[in-house]
């Protein structure tokens, strides 16, 4: 379970300060698909990055399976992060490695020997429907295929939690469906997923719960039906009118 308590994040720079997150309180249960929606700049990405401490909160707590993330030692944090995978908008594949070797990479780093890493990577490529691309290089793949390789690579560590930060927003529209299909499959398999997305249809269909964020606040949260069909807050209604 992920518990977020009174989380705030302020960015300070020469040009001023931005309160990216303000007093966020959330609980995300195991096996839950949790959607985060909102306009650009709402704080969605900062929130998801605070979960694995890619971004350090200014105040508040992130508690995962009873462990308070900000109080962990460097070593403990690295250990915790092994069970939390993150998928970004950009795919961050290693261009000089084949698809198979990209998926093998995290396994090799964690000490899995060559043949075992390879057979696990082949299994993972099957899950994302890309076993026939094992020997291709990233440059030979479409955006959708690259993101599916990135998902296979993220699965290699057997994560308990997967964080997705706008996984389809860098893709051409015709590639979005294939990535969402893989994510739906993971959801069916019981993975805990936190998904920042502008794919409202996906959020409606797959998420168990949705939060709508604006100006660093959680404005509204509930089931897809509650938030998307029967929103209560004016800001949510406004947003939905713009995007639907
Ligand atoms: P979203 O994901 O909803 O588009 P973000 O979480 O990326 O929103 O950003 C929330 C706010 O924090 C924005 O005003 C953004 O400009 C600001 N912000 C995000 N990251 C940084 C950073 N590293 N330095 C300064 N400001 C940042």
> Can you count the beta strands?
10
Query: Strands of the largest sheet, in order across it?
Result: 6-7-8-3-9-10
The number of helices is: 9
Beta-strand content estimate = 25-35%
Unique ligands: adenosine-5'-diphosphate
Oligomerization status of the protein chains? single chain
Helix content: 25-40%
| Poorly predicted spans | none
What is the arithmetic mean of pLDDT? Answer: 95
Structural category: alpha/beta
SSE string, helices as H and strands as E? EEEHEEHEHHHEHEHEEHH
Rg on CA atoms, Å: 18 Å
Largest sheet: 6 strands, mixed
Gap from first CA to last CA: 31 Å
Overall geometry: globular
Summarize the structure.
With 244 residues, the protein is α/β, with parallel strands linked by helices. The protein is 38% helix and 26% strand.
Explain this structure to me?
With 244 residues, the chain is of the alpha/beta class. The protein has nine helices and ten strands. Helix 6 links the parallel strand 7 and strand 8. Helix 3 packs across helix 4. Bound molecules: adenosine-5'-diphosphate. Adenosine-5'-diphosphate binds next to strand 1, strand 2 and helix 1.
Which secondary structure elements does this structure contain, and how are they paired or packed?
Blueprint: E1 2-13, E2 16-28, E3 33-37, H1 44-51, E4 59-64, E5 67-68, H2 74-81, E6 84-87, H3 99-109, H4 114-127, H5 143-155, E7 161-165, H6 173-188, E8 192-196, H7 200-206, E9 209-214, E10 217-222, H8 224-229, H9 234-243
Parallel strand pairs: 3-8, 3-9, 6-7, 7-8
Antiparallel strand pairs: 1-2, 1-4, 4-5, 9-10
Helix pairs in contact: 3-4, 3-5, 4-5, 5-6
Bound molecules: adenosine-5'-diphosphate.
């Amino acid at each position: 379970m992920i518990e977020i308590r009174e989380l705030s994040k302020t960015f300070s720079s020469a040009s001023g300060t931005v309160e990216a997150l303000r007093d966020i309180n959330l609980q995300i249960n195991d096996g839950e698909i949790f959607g985060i929606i909102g306009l650009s700049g709402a704080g969605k990405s900062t929130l998801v990055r605070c979960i694995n401490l890619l971004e350090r909160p200014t105040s508040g707590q992130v508690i995962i399976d009873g462990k308070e993330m900000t109080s962990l030692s460097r070593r403990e944090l690295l250990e915790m992060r092994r069970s939390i995978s993150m998928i970004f908008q950009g795919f961050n594949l290693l261009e000089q490695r084949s698809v198979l070797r990209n998926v093998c990479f995290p396994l090799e780093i964690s000490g899995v020997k060559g043949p075992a890493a390879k057979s696990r990577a082949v299994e993972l490529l099957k899950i994302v429907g890309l076993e026939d691309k094992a020997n291709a290089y990233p440059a030979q793949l479409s955006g959708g295929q690259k993101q599916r390789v990135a998902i296979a690579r993220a699965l290699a560590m057997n994560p308990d939690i997967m964080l997705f930060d706008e996984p389809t927003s860098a893709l051409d529209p015709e590639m979005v469906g294939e990535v969402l299909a893989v994510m739906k499959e993971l959801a069916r398999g019981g993975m805990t997923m936190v998904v920042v997305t502008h794919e409202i249809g996906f959020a409606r269909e797959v998420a168990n719960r949705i939060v709508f964020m604006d100006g660093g606040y959680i404005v509204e949260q509930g089931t897809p039906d509650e938030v998307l069909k029967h929103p209560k807050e004016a800001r949510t209604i406004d947003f939905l009118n713009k995007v639907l």
